[in-house]
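Task: sequence design from structure.
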């Protein structure tokens, strides 16, 4: 479908065809059809379902919202004249159907209304206009939901965001509305059931619903709230709900009006993986009267409990969850051994099928059902549980966005198909992420497209937590579910730019996309909720962050500076936006960025205060103050969020969900010292702990070509002002400054003038004097010859063209650091490597093995079939360890390898299966998902000094490579992301 086109005269061209056979007209060349301006089109509709009436009523309000002109709205097709918007469902009214058939014939294409949930939009004037109108827009759907989608699509083209209410996105004001003559059609959707799961609503959604949005509902979420959710679903082209189900939330079916609202909005009701047969066990199962929730000991009562609900809802549009788990997402009770649990769950499934068949006028095979092998249930499924073929198996991710399991080739033929349960929000081990949604759209695309290519297209459910603040990610999820291949074909940067233009106009859309892309990159490295380096179940105390404040140019400071840049850019963008857009911008962009920055500042500045206290710096308290100030900024931003739109969102946002330890103020360091000004110096790479005696203040080695400044910190171990000066012994040492004054600390950056430096490795020195002390700093350097752009070298390595083999990486301080998206050369094969934006923790771009449904290449065919990334690097002879950093994706099925192969020079490649698809208690899996990275290592031998080529082979699909480290000194270093890239910049 073409995008809305805004014109200077505040008119709108809607029906631009896309040149794919639907029509030949284009906006600006085709006739235009006026609908609003001077006079306003009447809305007429034919419908046999309330959802169509709801949609046209909303369209009436949308047109008024955009143009200030309220159209009339009536049912029936009689007495139409002038301008008209005619809406109907194909198959409801003979006259409407005949007209639809004629309109499609005139455009020499089918109307496409034989498929489910499809629609078309047709516009024309004069003799072409049907129903006696002079100018007409016809919106036709293949079924009631399809009709509603067509209506809401037209509203979106007018400029009404799906989030006009949920995020207060303003609508543009238009003097007139015109559409381009022609026909467009859309549908059927890629995925049959597309829905959201409101979950973990205890401190957000429910609090807001019962105290602010719908105060007469003190014990749950009623139809007034769900109607807003259902409208959002329709505007996003969704059709399914898993209702909220936590303790304290009254069950969906126990609240009068909820079921009826779902039926009016044509929303399919399902229940989560732990709520079989439409029962909310947390609210509805009373152990004091019903007995134990254990099918082994209390089957009769549990069957009655299920039977009552199925009898109540059987006449409505539902998807039934079958199977059984414990109360509130715990393991299924009963059975002492795995075999006994498999047999017990098999009995549950058989009995549930009998209940469904008893209460439906059709066999159980025709009743939509899902089975979700979540957590321990997956183990039972793997070990013999037989799920009826017509039941849709819904595969969960690992709660962090990585799909654990997809159907095997044999399973793909199941008549019930397959689905996916995907977490944008999560409560549980190893740590929650349910405050600031930060799952990168690029990861959503990679994993869901991979699922779709394996026939996972029956049901997609996103756990969206409280809906807010997951609006952006939720919208992307639903756009994928509607048109997987079309949306996945665009980069997520392009999508974010389009998204921003729709919400805030085109002028700053690219800038908004950039700050969001950086927000996702930073959170991919470590989510804001995970900066305590602790875990839940049980809640553990916070640990020391591993972003280093002393290594790699102050890794922690670089992270905070990156957050500072996007926070300040977002604030500047806000000032450029009209006042009516600023609330939406705050909700969708500013709040998550600002709070993510503040959470990192809380943790990392507190860490720095402790480090500096250990060095005896009297300025340690300054960084403790910064940590405390960051805490206060989160509180202020959250208060502003909840007070926005005249208090409409009061109670929606919590700054400390579940009051976990990570949200507590961190411990900070301070120094109490009454001595006078006392100069001390520490250098990059050294902790410089106070009281340890004489230290060799030696900077890491400067390597020619890598050209990275190194820092020296001058600091005060007493009170008062220090004036300092620096004296350089070697003229090739460049200091940022040679004098200064400070009370607490002062950072000095050091570089090397390579034109003046010696030709061989040496160590220079400079001295810093102040407060009666003189301290020396050593500056080691390693000059290197200008590298050739060609790989041809005396060591006999293979040659290549300059363009092919320009990048070269250099060993620096025991590491060769390589960003995966900077290969020296690429050779494609039966597989291929492709750069993908949004999947790297460092550069933003990772290398992904393609196609997503591609072959698995045997070890003996790696050379002949697998795509290869080559990285040329220079290092001395000896043993090295290669660490490949990858996203923690998993193989598609049990037993399917998830591998890459690696080799250096002419050595036979080593094939590595790096998948750590352990359960939630597996420490390695926990580390992987919290840092969004697998660190996979192999050992190699370099038989000579000089230039070498590291080759990385794509042996399996959907392998995502972020970085590569060649470790030459064997030493362990404490940092989070590792060294900055050591590419020789002289070749750039």
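Answer:
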């Amino acid at each position: 479908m073409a995008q809305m086109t805004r014109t200077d005269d505040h008119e709108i061209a809607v029906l631009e065809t896309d040149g794919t056979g639907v029509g030949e007209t284009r906006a600006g060349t085709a006739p235009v059809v006026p609908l609003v301006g001077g006079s306003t089109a009447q809305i007429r509709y034919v419908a046999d379902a309330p959802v169509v009436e709801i949609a046209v009523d909303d369209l009436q309000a949308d047109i008024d919202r955009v143009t200030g002109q309220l159209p009339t709205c009536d049912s029936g097709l009689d007495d139409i004249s002038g301008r008209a918007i005619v809406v109907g469902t194909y198959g409801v009214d003979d006259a409407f159907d005949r007209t639809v058939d004629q309109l499609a014939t005139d455009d020499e294409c089918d109307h496409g209304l034989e498929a489910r949930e499809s629609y078309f939009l047709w516009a024309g004037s004069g003799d072409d206009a049907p129903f006696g109108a002079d100018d007409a827009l016809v919106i036709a759907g293949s079924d009631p939901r399809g009709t509603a989608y067509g209506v809401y699509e037209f509203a979106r083209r007018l400029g009404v965001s799906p989030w006009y209410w949920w995020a207060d996105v303003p609508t543009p004001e238009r003097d007139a509305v015109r559409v381009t003559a022609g026909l467009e059609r859309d549908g059927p959707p890629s995925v049959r059931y597309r829905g959201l799961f409101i979950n973990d609503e205890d401190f957000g959604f429910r609090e807001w619903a019962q105290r602010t949005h719908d105060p007469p509902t003190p014990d749950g979420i009623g139809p007034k709230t769900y109607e807003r959710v259902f409208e959002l679903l329709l505007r996003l082209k969704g059709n399914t709900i898993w209702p909220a189900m936590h303790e304290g939330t009254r069950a969906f079916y126990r609240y009068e009006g909820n079921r009826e609202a779902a039926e009016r909005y044509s929303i399919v009701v399902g229940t989560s993986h732990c709520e079989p047969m439409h029962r909310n066990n947390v609210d509805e199962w009373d152990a004091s009267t019903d007995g134990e929730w254990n099918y082994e000991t209390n089957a009769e009562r549990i069957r009655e409990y299920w039977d009552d609900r199925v009898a109540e809802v059987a006449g409505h549009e539902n998807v039934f969850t079958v199977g059984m788990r414990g109360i509130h997402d715990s393991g299924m009770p009963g059975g002492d051994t795995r075999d006994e649990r498999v047999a017990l769950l098999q009995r549950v499934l058989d009995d549930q099928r009998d209940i469904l068949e008893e209460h439906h006028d059709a066999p159980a095979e025709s009743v939509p059902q899902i089975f979700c092998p979540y957590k321990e249930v997956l183990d039972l499924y793997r070990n013999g549980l037989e799920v009826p073929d017509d039941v849709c198996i819904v595969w969960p991710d690992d709660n962090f966005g990585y799909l654990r399991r997809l159907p095997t080739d044999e399973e793909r033929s199941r008549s019930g198909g397959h689905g996916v349960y995907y977490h944008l929000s999560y409560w549980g081990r190893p740590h929650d992420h349910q405050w600031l949604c930060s799952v990168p759209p690029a990861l959503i695309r990679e994993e869901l497209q991979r699922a779709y290519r394996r026939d996972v297209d029956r049901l997609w459910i996103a756990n969206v937590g409280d809906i807010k603040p997951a609006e952006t990610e939720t919208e992307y999820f639903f756009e994928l579910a509607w048109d997987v291949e079309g949306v996945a074909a665009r980069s997520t940067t392009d999508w974010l730019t389009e998204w921003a233009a729709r919400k805030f106009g085109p002028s700053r859309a690219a800038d908004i996309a950039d700050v969001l892309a950086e927000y996702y990159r930073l959170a991919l490295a470590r989510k804001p909720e995970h900066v305590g380096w602790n875990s839940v179940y049980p809640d553990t105390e916070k640990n020391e962050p591993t972003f280093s404040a002393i290594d790699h140019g102050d890794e922690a400071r670089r992270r905070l500076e990156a957050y500072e840049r996007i926070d300040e850019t977002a604030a500047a963008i806000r000032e450029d936006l009209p006042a009516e857009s600023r609330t939406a911008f705050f909700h969708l962009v500013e709040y998550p960025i600002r709070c993510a920055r503040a959470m990192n500042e809380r943790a990392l500045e507190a860490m720095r205060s402790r480090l500096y206290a250990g060095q005896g710096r009297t300025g340690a308290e300054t960084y403790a103050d910064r940590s405390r100030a960051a805490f206060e900024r989160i509180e202020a931003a959250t208060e502003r969020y909840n007070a926005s739109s005249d208090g409409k969102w009061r109670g929606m946002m919590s700054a400390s969900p579940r009051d976990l330890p990570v949200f507590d103020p961190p411990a900070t360091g301070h120094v109490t010292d009454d001595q006078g000004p006392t100069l001390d110096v520490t250098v990059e790479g050294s902790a410089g702990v106070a009281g340890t005696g004489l230290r060799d203040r030696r900077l890491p080695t400067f390597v020619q070509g890598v050209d990275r400044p190194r820092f020296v910190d001058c600091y005060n171990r007493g009170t008062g002002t220090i004036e300092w000066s620096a004296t350089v012994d070697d003229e090739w040492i460049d200091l940022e400054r040679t004098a200064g004054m400070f009370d607490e600390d002062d950072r000095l950056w050091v570089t090397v003038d390579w034109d003046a430096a010696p030709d061989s490795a040496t160590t220079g020195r400079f001295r810093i004097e102040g407060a009666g002390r003189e301290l020396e700093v050593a500056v080691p350097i390693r000059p290197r010859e200008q590298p050739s752009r060609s790989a041809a070298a005396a060591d006999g390595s293979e040659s290549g063209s300059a363009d092919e083999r320009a990048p070269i990486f250099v060993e620096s301080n025991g590491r060769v650091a390589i960003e995966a998206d900077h290969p020296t050369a690429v050779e494609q094969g039966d597989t291929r490597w492709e750069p993908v934006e949004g999947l790297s923790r460092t550069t933003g771009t990772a290398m992904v093995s393609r196609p997503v449904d591609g072959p698995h290449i045997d070890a003996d065919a790696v050379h002949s079939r697998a795509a290869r990334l080559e990285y040329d690097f220079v290092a001395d002879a000896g043993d090295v360890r290669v660490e490949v950093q990858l996203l923690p994706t998993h193989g598609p099925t049990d037993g399917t390898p998830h591998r890459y192969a690696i080799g250096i020079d002419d050595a036979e490649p080593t094939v590595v299966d790096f998948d750590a698809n352990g359960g939630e208690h597996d420490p390695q899996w926990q580390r992987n998902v919290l840092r969004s990275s697998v660190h996979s290592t192999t050992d190699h031998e370099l038989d000579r000094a000089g230039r070498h080529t590291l080759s990385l082979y794509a042996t399996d699909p959907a392998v995502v490579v972020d970085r590569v480290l060649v470790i030459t000194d064997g030493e362990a270093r404490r940092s989070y992301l590792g060294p900055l890239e050591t590419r020789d910049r002289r070749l750039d």
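The domain at 193-489 is CATH 3.20.20.520 (TIM Barrel).
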